[in-house]
Specification:
- Keywords: ATP-binding, Nucleotide-binding.
- This is ATP-binding cassette domain-containing protein.
- The chain has a single domain, classed as P-loop containing nucleotide triphosphate hydrolases (Rossmann fold, 3-Layer(aba) Sandwich).
- With 225 residues, the chain is of the alpha/beta class.
- α3 runs parallel beside α5 and α5 runs parallel beside α6.
- It is globular.
Length: 225
């Protein structure tokens, strides 16, 4: 199996207070891991370190066998996406321009038909000229899911990706994740409190005690894409 992401003995402090101590993990192609633990245990902070958005106090991170530091940040962005719990959108721009901003920031240029097709898959058909500001929280999340369909990243580091989604939206999120795992061998590390996501993932890691639990079988969701 190809190891897409590895971290070795990561430690992180907030001020002088230890938050994460000597954490190690390997994430492989087509693997899904749920990152669990109580609020404030460091899940979001860990994802930001793994995404290269902040630095640990000690330890190493490798993405596709390349050490994250001092490698150029732009190299990381070609294959790793950090999905924040608050969708980062250009609120005063329309939906299709938001999608173009996402894809072009990864060096991907696509015909308009591809953007419209992605919007249709996430239930935002005929809304391409609405501003992002006019969308509900759930629709904003669906827009970021449309971006994942277009970018097809090797690695997704997702922080509470189902925030704002109803039951249908959660199923849609899992459908997209599963299709990316199957067709693109995308690997996922998902910080979540949502039990449906935890049950769906192949493994779960409790950040409070660093325990890794693998499952003998994974519940699959029929892809609707």
């Amino acid at each position: 199996m190809n190891c897409y992401l590895s971290c070795d003995n990561l430690s992180l402090k907030v001020g002088y207070q230890p938050l994460i101590n000597l954490f190690s993990l390997n994430l492989y192609a087509s693997q899904s891991i749920a990152l669990i633990g109580s609020n404030g245990c460091g899940k979001t902070s860990l994802l930001k370190v793994l995404a290269g958005l902040s630095k640990p106090n000690s330890g190493k991170v490798h993405i596709l066998s390349k050490q994250l530091w001092p490698e150029n940040q732009s190299e990381r962005e070609n294959f790793c996406v950090f999905l924040s719990h608050i969708p980062g959108l250009l609120l005063d721009h329309n939906i299709i321009n938001n999608l173009k901003f996402y894809t072009q920031s990864f060096g991907i240029k696509l015909p308009d038909e591809s953007y419209l097709n992605a919007l249709n898959k996430v239930g935002l058909k005929d809304r391409e000229f609405q501003t992002a500001r006019s969308l509900s929280n759930g629709q904003k999340r669906r827009l970021t899911l449309a971006a994942l369909i277009l970018i097809k990243p090797n690695i997704i580091l997702a922080d509470e990706p189902t925030n704002g989604l109803d039951s249908d939206g959660i199923n849609l999120c899992l459908n997209i994740f599963e299709k990316l795992m199957n067709s693109n061998k995308t690997a996922l590390l998902i910080a979540t409190h949502e039990q449906k996501i935890i049950d769906w993932c192949q493994s779960k890691v409790n950040l409070e005690n660093f325990s890794l639990q693998n499952k003998k079988s994974k519940k699959t969701i029929k892809a609707l894409l």
